[in-house]
């Protein structure tokens, strides 16, 4: 990107790519001059087979290297050589590290606590009603293979019916 131009001074560029270019110039001992492609484009093939933009500057040898956030496409790879990518932009998601504790009540997670309380209350109420109805009128209500009509057996009968277990 271009930094601010103050009082007619030449344009100064800054950014990660410029830092990499500066480090290469210091390490390899070369001097460089930065200019923008005349049409301000990255480069695409034209109808006559030529290229415009930054790729065109490289193809016609008006520039030795091109530095840009340029997408590497098969068409561009056929006419110029690319380095490997040195910077990769991708979407990242930051999450808190999961704790490695064992929760004994993880089985209760599918429902809210109030719903579990309603289920428990319903099992207790229906179990009590089954016990009372069986106590008041024993010969008419047969509860499977259950022979004793205690409150404990009535509760287990309702719970077993609720979770569909024997």
From TrEMBL:
Source organism superkingdom: Eukaryota
Xref: Pfam families: Lig_chan (PF00060), Lig_chan-Glu_bd (PF10613)
Record has Ion transport as a keyword: yes
Gene3D superfamilies associated with the record: 1.10.287.70, Periplasmic binding protein-like II
Primary localization: membrane
SUPFAM superfamilies: Periplasmic binding protein-like II
Topology of the protein relative to the lipid bilayer: Multi-pass membrane protein
Ranges for domain Ionotropic glutamate receptor L-glutamate and glycine-binding: 1-60
Signal peptide interval: none
Transmembrane stretches, start-end: 113-136
Subcellular location field: Membrane
Record's keyword terms, sorted: Glycoprotein, Ion channel, Ion transport, Ligand-gated ion channel, Membrane, Receptor, Transmembrane, Transmembrane helix, Transport
Domain Ionotropic glutamate receptor C-terminal: start-end pairs: 1-166
CC terms in the record's Gene Ontology section: membrane
An example molecular function term from Gene Ontology annotations: ligand-gated monoatomic ion channel activity
Name of the molecule in the record: GRID2 protein
The species this protein was found in: Chauna torquata (Southern screamer)
Gene coding for it: Grid2_1
């Amino acid at each position: 990107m271009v930094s601010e131009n103050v009082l007619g001074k030449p344009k100064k560029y800054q950014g990660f790519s410029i830092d990499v270019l500066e480090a290469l110039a210091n390490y390899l001992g070369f001097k460089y001059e930065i200019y923008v492609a005349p049409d301000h484009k990255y480069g695409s093939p034209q109808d006559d087979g030529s290229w415009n933009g930054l790729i065109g500057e490289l193809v016609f040898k008006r520039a030795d290297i091109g530095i840009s956030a340029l997408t590497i496409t098969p068409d561009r790879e056929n006419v110029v050589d690319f380095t490997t990518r040195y910077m990769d932009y991708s979407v990242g998601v930051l999450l808190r590290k999961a704790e490695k504790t064992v929760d004994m009540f993880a089985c209760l997670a599918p429902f809210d606590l109030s719903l579990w309380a309603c289920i428990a209350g319903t099992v207790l109420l229906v179990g009590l009603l089954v016990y009372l109805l069986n106590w008041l009128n024993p010969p008419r209500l047969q509860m499977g293979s259950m022979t004793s009509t205690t409150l404990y057996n009535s509760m287990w009968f309702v719970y077993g019916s609720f979770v569909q277990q024997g």
